[in-house]
Design brief:
The structure holds 2 protein chains of 2 kinds.
Chain A: H1 2-21, E1 42-45, H2 62-73, H3 99-107, H4 109-112, H5 124-127, H6 146-156, E2 169-175, E3 178-180, E4 186-188, E5 190-195, E6 200-202, E7 208-211, E8 217-219, E9 224-227, E10 231-239, E11 242-250, H7 258-263, H8 269-281, H9 291-303, H10 309-317, H11 323-332, H12 335-349, H13 358-373, H14 378-386, E12 390-391, H15 399-403, H16 407-419, H17 438-445, E13 451-455, E14 462-466, E15 473-474, E16 479-480, H18 499-508, H19 515-528, H20 548-560, H21 565-574, E17 601-602, H22 605-616, H23 642-646, H24 666-674, H25 676-683, H26 688-695, H27 699-711, H28 717-732, H29 737-756, H30 759-762, E18 763-764
Parallel strand pairs in A: 1-6, 3-11
Antiparallel strand pairs in A: 2-5, 4-9, 5-6, 7-10, 8-9, 10-11, 12-14, 13-14, 15-16, 17-18
Helix pairs in contact in A: 2-6, 8-20, 9-10, 9-11, 10-27, 11-21, 12-13, 14-18, 19-20, 19-21, 24-25, 25-29, 27-28, 27-29, 28-29
Chain B: H1 2-21, H2 26-44, H3 62-67, H4 84-90, H5 105-116, E1 158-161, E2 168-171, E3 173-179, E4 186-202, E5 208-215, E6 219-226, E7 231-238, E8 243-248, E9 254-259, E10 264-268, E11 274-278, E12 285-290, E13 297-301, E14 306-309, E15 316-320, E16 327-332, E17 338-343, E18 347-353, E19 359-366, E20 372-377, E21 383-388, E22 393-397, E23 402-406, E24 414-419, E25 425-430, E26 435-439
Helix pairs in contact in B: 2-5
Classes of the chains: A alpha+beta, B mainly beta.
Chain lengths: 765, 446
């Protein structure tokens, strides 16, 4: 009996190892870090008992040891001396972003009161945090700790300051890089910092840890991870403006036979990579979508329009085995595709008559539209914006600079648009979660220092040109820094190369780690409902993708094929993952991150309004724009339409994805149900209901048409029966044939209203 | 009620008498030092210290504890049951202290036993309770000794020429050097200070030297020396933090001190008696100056203001609020009509002082690339010297603020600076302990 129990247990473990271990290196919790190349000696291990830690031969380094200690103790946190106003007269830079300044403050400022050069043990820097004398921040430092050893020995060792020659961190290694845990299980992370002089330090104790999803795994100050609920999360690490992360998976307890994954459809590399992830996490994919679901979503996601009743019916009835791929190909050739993606670009590029004259706004819009229509390679598209010069009415791209008169604003919107990341924090201090420093921010900003503009002959006509002079100062130093893209190569102040040319070369290089990747992620989200990195403009190194291999593969495919946007879209749309049903199964109900099913979402404002107009046959009139202009075709963010406002069309004030809100609101619900948009369109002369009556369609045909037009499917038998009964009933109570006609019309409007206010219509699924 | 408060007052007086006058034996005082003070330090000082003072209560020292806070005296000696301190600790009064935490029964019992036994303090204080933090009286607080791995040359924090110019005083850690300016020979070293000597001033007759300093966050200290014999004439402690600057009144009778504790104090330079405290600064005081005619005292500090006071009454006459950041340094010109000030805003401000004491800024200039630490007038008032965190040393035409000379890049921050009385030399002392002389006409080093 006992024996067989043991056997069962072993078997269970073996099975679990089979599912998790095959595809992911199973982390040994608490495993000692592999320190990197054997040539890098680990000269300091912060995890060892303090008695065993030797003082470095060169003494403790201010930049590499003292600042990390202050950060670990919380001294330079935003709540304490790192606050903008400091605390108690003692002000440090937030998380030590300016070691030179901190050094002066700690050793010399306020008459050098904080250290005692002659009797180090009497230094305020030690007396206060140990609470030997009163300290507003309470006791922070133990005399027996490593941190005390570092601070006190640094003082006693002669108060050496930061130097240009200090070794710089070149990378952080974290082990385990990936860990698979079960609920409640703990694992210890180890972080080794590698320095430019070849030495390495285990800095586990001084790193700042945070978890992306505390429900899946939590992490404490010492890098000890504890798994919670099922799923996967990233533990991000921040050390001295260097960042990295470890991935922690906590697979679901489902027992899914391997055949589920082996037999799941695989249309291209996307599917291999998604199924691999799903198998690791023990999530079974949903079944493939039906043709009706597929045609509706493909139209909406690629072109922002609904298929007409006829298009839907044709597709559903088409017997061709390759019809999905054929439909995708056809959609990519449509004008509505151009409208839709032009609108998407116009959001990120802030096309609006708020800051542009109307003719200039059109010029910018038309330039984008032309670029989309010709499937201009994305790198070329952006290069033309970055290096734009000339007359803004002739070169629409140049309007990007007319929109951004302030360099800091330009620097920040530019990074959001083309790198998918916010560097705004670094304007005032080093980014607290990211690697970007204030210096890098202003080095980047200085690339935009020489954009000249003068008014042309007409209103809206601006001449954009490159100034021979001009610098952007780092305010703290009151002087400029060499213009340098983020982590890029600096350009000499007096270099002959145009600074924007230098920026464009860096930006659009296939090796740029952010540019193509962030665009691929945006396109992916358009189709899959959720970015591989979410949010799509929060591409921090500490916010890793839910499937790194997939994002890397898609990006590589994109750059390998000359930034061909249509190819990228084709790849995504043809994948089995895109074509999955949105109906969950038993194992993927909780999954919203790993693409085991199609993620449902509300139609974007413009698409929804156009869908209502299309189904009701009553176009929306936009003042100042030609009749027949669809919402998706309106070039301007300033369009006076309550429906679009309520459903979250972005105002294009700043480049941020969250400007387009998909959040539900009471105003949306009320406007859908009671508002004039849907109701007026249903009553409109020449609209769909009018046509039904003029054409003399039967009740069956009316219902059939409305279903196909709005939902891209035929009504189910029970649905048809109920609606037919309702239409019959409406007529039955009528006193005269005339009244019966009126009652029927009213009832048809009611049926259409019910369909157009249903979730199935409002949502893409 | 009346009876109760009288009783408290009487007990309080009795207690003070006991602790200060009667000098209880070391054994009684030790309970406070060994049992009570550590608990206060660990559990209470985060909120009840001299800067935060939650509820007006400071528990850093025995005297401060006895003096109590907004709710009155916390201790009724001999009666722990009536002592507010115990009532807040055991929860019979809300909020129970420490907030968000609680003392163990044993710890609360320690307080009860100590109060019932008379609530004696450390018992070795010999100066007025308000002036001297007890318990730390013997020496500034220290952690376990740390061996300095390298010997750092003690910084120079203060510098003064004796009227006549035959002698100069150089203030360093715990000592003052008396030097012959011409040769640099050290004539005498005055030892025994409690910390860095940050203020030096000769009396107008040149016989006495006031050396001020103290220990940061602990106490201020003033020592008066007989220059001829090197004997200490008097020394006393005052302020709750170190003295940052000091100045003799032109008649030599009064000494003004400014401290990191935000206060300016006036002392009888002969007796050491405190004359008055000037309280209007809201942050650390960094600079003090008497006008040459003795009518005014100017003080300046981290609250970005320069204040002008009437030393005879202690009345504040005017506040100059032109500076954009902490003011580190001020100086009157020899006429007493102009006051120069500078600090973290990198700007030299020149104010004209009216008969009423009202100051009006007449000139200003962004003068350095980083905070300015010192500004001094030459004895003829024509030249202004400034130095700052950018490690530069500059000479200016005081009337126009036109830069006349930039001296060599300084090896470290200049923390002390003075013109020789004949106006020929500018002496500078630095954080790295070095001392240099520059020709005041050319800016060249001697």
């Amino acid at each position: 009996m006992r024996t067989s129990n043991v056997k069962l247990a072993v078997l269970a473990i073996a099975i679990s190892l089979f599912f998790t271990g095959l595809l992911m290196e199973r982390a040994a919790p608490g495993a000692k870090a592999e320190a990197g190349p054997a040539s890098a000696p680990v000269t300091l291990d912060t995890t060892r008992p303090v008695a065993e830690i030797e003082t470095p031969a060169a003494g403790w380094n201010f930049r590499n040891h003292v600042i990390p200690v202050l950060t670990r103790l919380g001294c330079n946190s935003g709540a304490c001396h790192g606050a903008l106003a400091g605390k108690g007269g003692f002000k440090l830079t937030l998380r030590g972003y300016d070691p030179e300044l901190d050094f002066n403050v700690m050793t010399r400022q306020a008459l050098g009161r904080r250290v005692n050069r002659s009797e180090p043990a009497r230094s305020l820097l030690l007396l206060k945090p140990t609470m030997t004398i009163g300290h507003g921040g309470g006791k922070r430092l133990n005399v027996e700790s490593l941190e005390y050893k570092v601070l006190s020995e640094w003082i006693a060792g002669g108060l050496a300051g930061p130097a240009e020659s200090d070794p710089k961190i070149v990378r952080l290694d974290v082990t385990p890089r990936e860990a698979t845990l079960s609920p409640g299980q703990a694992a210890q992370l180890r972080v080794v910092a590698h320095y430019s002089d070849g030495h390495a330090e285990d800095v586990t104790r001084w790193v700042k840890y945070s978890t992306a999803d505390a429900a899946v795994a939590s992490v404490d100050d010492d890098g000890s991870v504890r798994a919670g609920g099922h799923g996967e999360t990233a533990i991000s690490l921040w050390y001295q403006s260097n960042v990295s992360f470890a991935r922690v998976a906590n697979p679901f307890p489902h027992a899914i036979p391997p055949e589920v994954f082996a037999n799941a459809p695989r249309n291209n590399f996307v599917d291999d990579l998604i199924l691999r992830k799903l198998q690791t996490l023990r999530i079974a994919p949903s079944a493939q979508s039906g043709d009706g679901e597929f045609v509706r979503r493909a139209y909406l996601d690629a072109t922002g329009t609904l298929p007409t009743a006829r298009e839907a019916a044709q597709f559903i009835q088409d017997p061709a085995p390759e019809k999905r791929a054929q439909l995708i190909e056809a959609l990519l050739q449509r004008d509505e595709y151009v409208d839709y993606w032009t609108n998407r670009h116009a959001d990120t590029l802030l096309v609006s008559s708020r800051l542009l004259r109307e003719n200039a706004m059109w010029s910018f819009y038309n330039w984008i539209r032309e670029s989309v229509a010709t499937n201009k390679p994305y790198d070329q598209f952006v290069r033309e914006i970055v290096t734009a010069n000339g007359n803004t009415l002739e070169n629409g791209a140049a309007n990007y600079y007319v929109l951004h008169k302030e360099t800091t604003e330009l620097n920040e919107n530019f990074s959001m648009a083309f790198l998918g990341m916010s560097i705004t924090c670094a304007r005032c201090h080093n980014h607290p979660l990211e690697k970007w420093t204030q210096k890098q921010y202003y080095q980047m900003a200085n690339l935009f220092a020489r954009i000249g503009m003068k008014n042309g002959a007409r209103d809206g006509d601006v001449q954009v040109y490159t100034n021979p002079f001009g610098e952007v100062n780092l305010p703290r130093l009151g002087k400029p820094l060499p213009p340098t893209p983020l982590d890029g190569v600096p350009l000499a102040f007096d270099a002959a190369t145009d600074r924007r040319e230098h920026l464009a070369n860096w930006l659009t290089a296939p090796s740029n780690p952010y540019f193509a990747r962030s665009f691929v992620n945006r396109v992916w989200k358009n189709f899959m409902g959720r970015g591989l990195v979410e949010a799509v403009d929060d591409m921090r190194a500490t916010n890793p993708p839910s499937n790194e291999e997939l994002l890397a593969a898609l990006t590589r495919d994109f750059t390998d094929h000359k930034f061909d946007v249509k190819r990228l879209i084709r790849t995504i749309m043809n994948s089995a993952a895109y074509q999955r049903s949105s109906t969950p199964n038993e194992t993927n109900r909780q999954d919203e991150r790993f693409y085991s099913r199609y993620v449902i979402r509300r139609l974007p404002a413009e698409a929804l309004l156009d869908a209502v107009s299309q189904v009701t046959g009553a176009p929306t009139i936009f003042p100042n724009f030609a009749a027949g202009t669809r919402a998706m075709q309106v070039p301007d963010a300033r369009v006076n339409n309550y429906f679009l406002t309520v459903f979250g069309k972005p105002l294009r004030m700043v480049t941020v994805e969250s400007e387009r809100t998909a959040e539900p609101s009471v105003a949306q619900a009320l406007h859908t149900i009671n508002g004039d948009t849907i109701n007026e369109k249903l009553r409109a002369p020449g609209g769909v209901v009018d046509s039904f009556i003029k054409l003399g369609l039967s009740d069956e045909m009316v219902i059939q048409h409305l279903y196909l037009a709005a939902l891209s499917r035929a009504p189910r038998a029970d649905e048809a029966a109920r609606l037919l009964a309702a239409l019959r009933e409406a007529k039955a109570g009528a006193a005269s044939p005339q009244e019966a006609l009126t009652a029927r019309r009213q009832a048809i409007e009611d049926v259409a209203w019910a369909i157009l206010t249903s979730k199935e219509f409002l949502f893409n699924h | 009620m009346i009876g109760w408060s009288r009783l408290v007052a009487a007990l309080l007086l009795a207690m003070l008498w006991l602790s200060v006058g009667a000098r209880p034996s070391a054994g009684q005082g030790e309970i406070y030092l060994k049992e009570i003070a550590p608990i206060l330090r660990e559990k209470c000082l985060a909120c009840h210290n001299h800067t935060t003072r939650k509820g007006g209560l400071n528990l850093e020292t025995y005297e401060a504890l006895v003096n109590g806070g907004g709710r009155g005296a916390p201790i009724v000696a001999g009666k722990s049951g009536e002592s507010l301190l115990v009532k807040y600790l055991d929860g019979s009064l809300a909020p129970r202290m420490p907030l968000g935490d609680r003392l163990s029964d044993a710890e609360i019992d320690a307080f009860r036993r100590w109060i019932d036994a008379g609530a004696r303090g450390p018992g070795n204080s010999a100066t007025p309770a308000s002036a001297q933090p007890a318990g730390e009286a013997a020496a500034p607080a220290s952690l376990p000794p740390l061996k300095a791995a390298v010997t750092m040359r003690p910084a120079i924090n203060s510098l003064a020429f004796r009227p006549g110019g035959d002698l100069m005083a150089v203030g360093r850690y715990r000592e003052v050097e008396l030097r012959a300016p011409a040769t640099g020979r050290i004539a005498a070293t005055l030892k025994g200070h409690g910390g860095e000597v940050r203020g030096l001033g000769f009396s107008p007759d040149g016989r006495r030297l006031a050396a001020t300093g103290g220990s940061p966050s602990q106490f201020g200290e003033i020592r008066i020396w007989d220059v001829a014999t090197g004997a200490e004439l008097r020394s006393w402690r005052g302020h709750r933090d170190n003295v940052t600057a000091s100045a003799f009144s032109p008649d030599g009778r009064m000494l003004a001190t400014g401290s990191y504790d935000k206060l300016v104090k006036l002392w009888d330079a002969e007796t050491g008696a405190e004359i008055r405290t000037l309280k209007d600064h809201t942050d650390a005081v960094f600079a003090i100056a008497f006008s040459p005619d003795g009518r005014w005292i100017a003080s300046a500090g981290a609250d970005r203001t320069v204040k002008l006071w009437d030393p005879a009454t202690g009345r504040r006459l005017f506040t100059m609020s032109d500076a954009l950041d902490a003011v580190h340094t001020i100086a009157f010109d020899p006429s007493g009509k102009l006051l120069a000030g500078a600090g973290a805003d990198r700007i030299i401000h020149i104010w004209q002082i009216a008969e009423t004491g009202e100051g009006k800024r007449v000139r200003s200039l962004i003068a350095h690339e980083d905070a300015i630490n010192l500004v001094v007038f030459s004895p003829d008032g024509k030249t202004l010297a400034t130095t700052g965190a950018d490690r530069s040393l500059k000479l200016w035409d005081a009337a126009t603020l036109v830069e006349t000379h930039t001296c060599e890049k300084q090896s470290d921050w200049v923390q002390a600076m003075a013109f020789s009385p004949d106006g020929r030399w500018l002496a500078v002392g630095r954080y790295d302990g070095t001392l240099s002389f520059y020709d005041a006409r050319t800016g060249k080093p001697r």
